[in-house]
Amino acid sequence: MKKIYKSIALTVTILGLVSCGNDWLDTKPADGIPTSEAITNYNDALTARTGMYDGLQGNSTYTSYYAARMFYYGDVRGEDMQARTQGMRSSSCYEMRYTVDDAPNMWNVPYNVLRRANRLIQAIDNKKVTDAKEEQIGKIYSEALVVRALVHFDLVRIYSMPYTADNGASLGIPIILEPLEKEALPSRNTVAEVYTQVIKDLNSAINSTFLATGKTQGYINLWSAKALLARVYLTKGDNVNALATAEDIIKNSPYKLWTTEEYVDAWQKENGSHTNEMIFEVLNNSNDDWTDREGIAYLLNEDGYADAIVTKSFTEMLSKDPKDIRLDVILPALSDAGLIKQYGKAKIFINKFPADPKSGEMRLNSLPLLRLSEVYLNAAEAAVKLGNSQDKAALYLNAIVQRANPDAVAIEAANVTLERILIERRKELIGEGQRFFDAMRNNETITRYTDSKDQGYHYSLNVESRKFDRKYFRAILPIPVTETNVNANLKAQQNPGY
């Protein structure tokens, strides 16, 4: 299997770190070398770093992290995107009919990435790497802390109630800070404890001074750590720190918003303006990697699987301003006669993972995790929630609104509302896996449709999945039965309703 990050050769001694094993408690590399000997020098650490980043997409058995599912999970569970029809890869997440036995699994792969990050952290803590400069090893260590924070944060959002529901008092996920033995039986920490650890790891990395301050495409730098921290603070409801962190990035980072003229073409990763506002993305440079037809680009493209589309209600919402440049990153069906007949000229396919204009190749798209536009919207949301920062809320909201349409009338500070900002988030971040999580932390009700009059493109859903809020038990996933069957502690802590 060709690896996404090919700049560092994979060595035999570290095969276990980059293999596609699914057992997140496994502590032995595939070649049988003990974990304590797996990372013994700087080259080993670099290779382990490659495996850690590569793991963020998933593996050949589970496309259940950022290769695909993390994106469509966050979108089709909202009201702006849907599985096109039954039997699609995104259908289970969209329909929300699942039981504990057949729910989407988004547990194994993230914990596997945690294992990789923790092996790096442990090896460096144990002074196994002695042939590198302090800044070299410190950089890898800090990146591993950020990855560990990202994974814990993602898992707690998927498997637990939002922090804002009860100030983090409910059950979260197990915090894992070291490679575990196979016989380990961890229990769930509280949501608050998970957030405390996530914030601790991020601040440790940020304050280390080892993270790069310039653009580092495909690798974590100071600004991606801060962008993730701003997202974490906002999700926690800590609006003071969310605003301060977001403003730091806006004012001091080397990233700039794409201009209106750049916006559509900038999604093509080979475009010169692509990295202007793309703070962190997982790179994909191999068209015969296992993600070739399972990755999010193939799922969202008409000439791929045409798996997920935007809803009719979203198209109508975005089309209220015909000059909105974001309409140009949503395409109608152009080649499939059946789809053209069904949807006509309606724009339904998100083109944020575009095919190469020359070759038609769509499998080489990278995976955007953190973008400057989100940071602006985070700042606007945090400011409006504070109640005494309406001017800032208007400033950061208008930057996105008037980038989408320079002729749009600026929103006055007195008229900025949380509802207006959340609508802008939906327009700007469609297809980037954000909407469902935004709705849950803000206690919004998600309404797909209520009856045949407003059904739009939606196919038949269970009544309870047509309109729901965060009290609906399927709004959080069950811990997989593969885990609860072998861990009595987790079995006793299964999510309610399952």
Explain what the structure shows.
With 498 residues, the protein is mainly alpha-helical. Helices cover 42% and strands 5% of the residues. It contains 21 helices and eight strands. It has helices at 15-18, 42-55, 69-76, 91-95, 108-125, 134-159, 163-166, 191-207, 222-236, 239-252, 263-266, 296-300, 312-318, 337-343, 372-386, 390-404, 418-429, 435-441, 463-466, 481-484, 488-491, and strands spanning 81-83, 278-282, 308-310, 330-332, 347-350, 367-371, 446-447, 467-468. A two-stranded antiparallel sheet has the order 1-3. Helix 6 runs antiparallel to helix 8 (191-207). It is globular, with a radius of gyration of 22 Å.
Strand order of the largest sheet: 1-3
Structure classification: mainly alpha
Counting DSSP E segments of at least 2 residues, the number of strands comes to 8
The termini sit apart by: 37 Å
